[in-house]
Amino acid sequence: MPTKTIPYDVAEHLRTEEEMLLYIEAAFEEAGDDASFIAKALGDVARARGMTQVARDAGLSRESLYKALSGDRSPDFSTLLKVMRALGIRLHPEAA
């Protein structure tokens, strides 16, 4: 009998605000200068929260939000800021 697998979706496991924030923090630490990596992580959190509501709160269409946060391309910084604001996440610059 062959082993049956299903794709892993991290959004299904991000249940609390703390888990979502820790996930985003880890993504920023691992991303280096890869904006698409950050976008993908924000997309995971947006899906966990509900993409339609996040899109509405960010002032974007749901379809454009899916594209921007797919990780296939680097979205505009302004888009990332809108999504982060909609998710209740703020950037805190600090010296390296």
Automatic annotation (TrEMBL):
PROSITE patterns documented for this protein: HTH_CROC1
InterPro entries: Cro/C1-type_HTH, HI1420, Lambda_DNA-bd_dom_sf
Protein origin, superkingdom: Bacteria
SUPFAM superfamilies (UniProt xref): lambda repressor-like DNA-binding domains
Transmembrane segments: none
Residues of the HTH cro/C1-type domain: 51-96
MF terms in GO: DNA binding
NCBIfam families, alphabetized: dnstrm_HI1420
Name recorded for this polypeptide: Transcriptional regulator
Source organism of this protein record: Caballeronia sordidicola
